[in-house]
Design goal:
241 residues, Alpha-Beta Plaits, MutS, DNA mismatch repair protein, domain I, five-stranded mixed β-sheet, three-stranded mixed β-sheet, flat, Rev_trsase/Diguanyl_cyclase, UmuC domain-containing protein
């Protein structure tokens, strides 16, 4: 059975800066764009105090002072070097690897036994942080699209397992599902549909009437979305194969 893992380097640019300055591990840190104009990377500590992605620096100067926040200029040469080290480490453990972006490679785990995958992924997490200092999270699924990480589940999620799939759906806000987003999020939440799992269990007649063909395709096994685009949710909430 096909099985893919998406390895996501957590807050990659910030993690790279922390490798060379461990004193930053417990401080809010942001990495700025080329011209130091806006935030392009934020760990959870910075998100918690209200720093948004691509927020211009002039908007949060006071927050920087109040919270003793460290701000780094982007160093893409360093990030690329560390990315290569992460990739080399992964390649020693799983040779079938595809680099998707600077902080996201895919691993083909199809040749590994299903029972061995969780321990393999946890071993990779430990090995990567030991060899490179970069923390990573795993999302495992039967397709590359469905191999999504879910931080709320502790850094590892295998949705090819029905139990993990249900946990992943429950941990995914309905507004982050492809085909929902802001257009239908308010409509669904008013009706108590707050997560992807709630949406899966929702009345099909109601979703079809309000969301039309997109809602039908989203919730029908084996169907495809009307448009192909990068998204943060599931390509098909009921897809298993």
């Amino acid at each position: 059975m096909p099985r893919y893992a998406l390895v996501d380097c957590n807050n990659f640019y910030v993690s790279c800066e922390r490798v060379f300055n461990p004193s930053m591990n417990s401080r809010p840190v942001i990495v700025l764009s080329n011209n130091d104009g806006c935030a392009v990377a934020r760990p959870n500590e910075a998100k918690a105090i209200g720093i948004g992605m691509e927020d211009p620096v002039f908007k949060f100067q006071e927050l920087i002072r109040q919270h003793d926040m460290a701000a780094y200029s982007s160093n893409y040469a360093m990030y690329a070097h560390i990315s290569r080290r992460v990739t080399l480490t992964l390649g020693l453990m799983v040779p079938d690897l595809q680099v998707y972006s600077i902080d996201e490679p895919f691993l083909d785990l199809s040749t590994f036994r299903t029972a061995d995958v969780p321990d393999l992924c946890r071993n990779i997490i430990k090995t990567v942080i030991r060899n490179t200092g970069i923390p990573v999270s795993f999302g495992v699924g039967p397709t590359k699209t469905l191999a999504k990480k879910h931080p709320a589940l502790g850094g590892f999620c295998d949705i090819s397992d029905p139990v993990w799939l249900e946990r992943a759906l429950a941990a995914t806000e309905v507004g982050k599902v492809w085909g929902v987003r802001r257009r239908y999020e308010k409509f669904l939440k008013v009706r108590g549909i707050n997560t992807a799992l709630d949406l899966v269990r929702a009345d099909r007649g109601m979703t079809k009437k309000r969301m039309g063909v997109n809602g039908t395709r989203l919730l029908s096994p084996g169907s495809e979305p009307a448009r192909k685009k990068k998204h943060r949710g599931f390509k098909n909430l009921l897809q298993r194969d």
